Amino acid sequence: MRRLLLLLSILATLSLGSCSTKGQESLQLHSEADLAGLHVATIAGSCYDIDLSKRNDITLILYNYEADMLESLLIGKSDVIVTDEIIFNANICRETGIKIAMKGTEKFPSAFMFRKTDRDLVEAVNATQRRMVEDGTMARLEKFWLEDEYLNAAYFTHIPEETSGTPIRFATISSMAPISFVVEDNWYGIETELAREIAKDLHRPVEFKMYDISSAMMALKTGKADVVMGAIFITPERQEQFLFAEPYHDYSSAYYVIDRDAARNKVAFWKGFKKSIRQNFIQENRWKYITSGLWETIKITFFAILLGSALGVFLCAMTRSRRKWVRSIAGTYNWLMAGIPMLVLLLILFYVVFAGTSLNATIVAIIAFALNFASGASGVYDTALSAIPVGQTEAGLALGFTRLQTFFHIVFPQALKHGLPLYQAQCISLLKGTSIVGYIAIQDLTRAGDIIRSRTFDALLPLLMVTVFYFILAWLIGLLLQSTLPKKKSL
Amino acid sequence: MITVSHLSKTFVNPDGKVLTVLKDVNCEINSGDVISIIGPSGTGKSTFLRTLNLLDPPTGGSILLDGEDILVKGYPVHKLRQKMGMVFQNFNLFDHMTVLENVMYAPCKILHMPKELAREESLALLRKVGMSDKADVRPSSLSGGQKQRVAIARCLAMKPEAILFDEPTSALDPTMVGEVLSVIRSLAKEGMTMLIVTHEMKFARDVSTRIFFMNEGIIYEEGSPQQIFEAPRRSATKAFVQQIHKEVFELNSPDFDFPGMYTRMTRFCIKYNIPEKRETTETITQLMVDEIMADYRPLTVRITHSDLSEITALDFMVENLETSPLQAEGVNPASLEKIRSLCKEVIEEPTTRGFRVKLIL
Fold it and tell me: Computed from CA positions of residues B124, B125, B130, B133, in that sequence, does the dihedral angle turn out positive or negative?
C-alpha cells in the first residue's frame, strides 16, 4: 500500500510538471509554404496526413489522439498542429494557450460512409439530409454545433428515438465535441443529431459505438456496423471501397500554434492539480468511464484467465502425451500462439472467425485472450510438474493411491508452489495485454482513459489514473493467487 | 502367496533401442518369507521388484497373487499396492508434509481412518523406528538414515501384508546403513513378508530365509542363505558371493600397452581398498612378464581380489604348455627367490588349456 501511494505521488508530479513556455514570439504562418522546416503534428490517417506526407520539406509527426497531439505542441515536440478548425474551440484555445495561426484554404467535404452494397440506405440518408436542408434543421444544427453556440448551452437532443426494430449501427471514430461525443452515457454532437434524424425517418433505433478509423472500416466491411461517421472526409481511395452519402458540411482545416502573447494564468500547483482532477474525473461524471472500463477489464481478464487455465490443462496434457502426434499438435499450437501478435489474433477472431456471428465483442476478447493464455498456462503447468521428481508419484502409487489421487494429493500441492509465481506473472501480463481491446470497440480501462482525454485534451492525467488502477488490479491478482497457497498443510 | 512365472520385461528407449532387462523370471513367494535379492548391477533386481507391484508393468509372463492373476485388465492395482508396500532407494518422502503427516496421510486418505486414530498409530510406528521425536519436522531436515526409517514407517502405516525394499541402504552414508538395517531386521523377526534388493551381503545372509541370486535377467540361483553363501552351485554365484573382482590383460601383440597395464593394476588396488599391495603387484608382474616369462606369448595376466576372504592373486596363464615356466632352464634363481619372498603362496598348476602360475599376495 505504501508503494502504491509513492507511485501515485510520482505520477501526479509528472502530470503537472510537463509544460514550459519560453519568452518568444508566437509562430507566424501566412501560407502553407511557411510550414517548410517545421515539425508538424496531425492525426494519423486523416486527410491532412495524406496531404502533408507528400511534402518532404517538413517533419510530420502523427498521433492517434488529439490530446497527444496537443500535448506535443505544448511541450515543444511540434511547432504547429493541423486539424479540423472545429476541434479546438475557443474555450480550449484559451485554457491551453494555443491559437489558430492560419486557416486552410481547402474545403473538406464530410459525409457518412456505407458499404458498397447498401445503396438503399444511402438514398434514405440523402433524402433525410435534403429534408433537413429544406426545413432548416441543418442550418440550425450547424449554427448550434459549429459556431460554438453549444459551449454556452445545455447539449440537447430533442429527437424522440425508436426503441424497437433492428438498430442502425453507427461506428464513430470521433469522441470529440462537436462531432460526436458522450456525456454520461448519452451521445451528443452534430453528426449524432444527424444520425438521429436519419433513424427517425427510417423508424429504426440508433446505436453508437466508438472505433479507431481502421477498425471502423473493418467493422463496416464485415457487417459489424452499418455506417461510419465522425467527420469522415471523402477521398478517392475511400470511394473505391465504400459509398458516401451527400456531404453534409464542408470543413476547413486550421493550423494551431502556441499563443505566446496570451498571458497564461499561472496557477498554483495544488490548485492546478485540483482543477485537473475536477476536469478529468468529476465534470460530466467522467469517473464513470473509469469505473465501467474497469469493470470491462476485470471481466475480460477474469474470464480469460478462467477459460485459458482450463484450456491450458488440456494443452499441458497434450504436451506430456506419450503419442508423438498429440505432442506435435500441442507444439504447433504453442508455436502459433507465441508468434501471432495478440492484437492480430484479436482482430482475426473478431472480424473474420466470428464475423458472421452475433457474438458480443467482450466474449470474443475473452476467447482471444483465453486462447493465448492457454499456451502460457500450459507452459507454466509443464514447468511446475516437471519440477516434481517422478519418485513422488511412485511413492504415492506404491502406497495405494490411484493415479488421479496421486496427482491431486501429492504432485499438485507441490507443483502449485513451483508454478504459482510464474502463473501470477502470466495473469498480470494478460491483464495488461487487455488494454488493446479498444480496437474492437470495447470500452475497457485504457479506452476509458482515451475517451476522457479526447474530451479534456489532457494528455497524461487520465492515463496515470488508468495506470493506478492497473497496479491495483495486478496487486489484487497477486493477493488472490497467494491465498490459494495453504499456509500450513493440514490433513 | 505370489507365484511368478515366465516374467519378462523389455524397455524401449526413446531412440528405439530395445533393452531386455528381465528374460524369464520364475519363483514362488510364500507368506512369511524374507527374501534377499542379490546380484551384479544391471541384472534386473530392482526391475523385478517394481514389476511385482506394477510400477513397471511386465511385458510378458504372469503374476498370481493368492491364485488371482494381477495382470488382467481392470485389476484394481491400487488395492494390490495397499497390501504390498514399497520402500525406495531414494526414500521419496513427501517434502511438503511433516514426518507425521507423511506417515498418517495414506491411512487418512485411502483407508479413511479417523484423524485421531491415524495420528496415534502413526506416532506408534514412528516410535518403533525411533523417529517419534522428529514427528513435526520436515523431511528435508533429516539425515538419509532417518528419512529411510520414516519411509518404512509410512509404508507400515498401510498395514501391508508384504513389503518390497528396493536397495534401501544404497543411497546412505555408510554410517547410517546400520540404523536402517536394524529396523528391517526387527520387521523380519515379527514375521513380515519381505523382498529386499540389497548389496549388504552380511545382512542378507543373516536376515533372509531365502536368497535369490539374479544374473542376466533371470533368477540364476535360489536357495537358503547357507547354501548360496557357502556352497553356491554355479560359478557366477560363487564369484559374486565371494565378491571376487578381477581384471584381465591379454599380452598377445607387440603393441601391448605395458604402462597402461600398470596404471590399471594400480587403479584396481585402490578401488578395492588394497593400496598396500600396489607396489608388490607391480614388482612381481614386472619380474614375471619381462624376465621369467618374457618368451611366453601370448600370455594372459589376471589380477583378482575377494572382499570376503581378502585374498589377492596374480595369475599368469599360457596356453598349450605342460610344464611350469618357473622350473624352466635359465630362470634367474635370484628373481625366483624374490618372487617367493613377496608371495604368500606360489601355485603352479596345469589347466585344461595350458598352464597357470598363481601367485597369492
Answer: negative
What's the pLDDT at B16? 79
Q: Is the pLDDT of residue B67 over 90?
A: no
**Which chain A residues are within 8 Å of B108, Cβ to Cβ?**
491
**Sequence-distant (≥ 6) Cβ neighbours of residue B268 within 8 angstroms:** B245, B247, B303, B305
Dmax (CA) for chain B in angstroms is 88
CA-wise closest residue to A427 among A307, A319, A256, A281: A307
Please, what is the average pLDDT of chain B? Answer: 91
pLDDT at A491: 45
Q: Which residue has the cell 601391448?
A: B256
**pLDDT value of residue A267:** 60
pTM: 0.73
Q: Which residue has the cell 490411484?
A: A402
Q: What is A22-108+256-263's CATH number?
A: 3.40.190.10
Please give, one letter per residue, the 3-state secondary structure of B17-55.
CEEEEEEEEEEEECCCCEEEEECCCCCCHHHHHHHHCCC
Report d(CA A72, CA A258) in Å as an integer.
11
> What confidence score (pLDDT) does residue A264 get?
56
State how far residue A477 is from chain B, nearest Cα, in angstroms. 25
CB contact under 8 A, A401 and B97: no
Q: Is A34 helix (H, G, I), strand (E, B) or coil?
A: helix
For domain B2-241, give its CATH number from 3.40.50.150, 3.40.50.360, 3.10.310.10, 3.40.50.300. Answer: 3.40.50.300
Q: Count how many Cα atoms sit within 13 Å of the Cα of residue A134 in the half-sphere of its side chain.
A: 6
- The verdict on domain B244-360 having CATH code 1.25.40 is no
Residue B68 has pLDDT above 60, yes or no: yes
Gap between the Cα atoms of A159 and A161, Å rounded:
6
Q: Are B81 and A398 an interchain contact pair (Cβ–Cβ within 8 Å)?
A: yes
| Residue spans of chain A under pLDDT 70 | 1, 4, 11-24, 156-158, 262-269, 487-491
Q: Which of B282, B246, B264, B211 is nearest to B37 (CA)?
A: B211
Beta carbons of A395 and B97 less than 8 Å apart: no
Question: Residues of B with CB below 8 A from A398's CB?
Answer: 53, 55, 81, 85-86, 88, 155
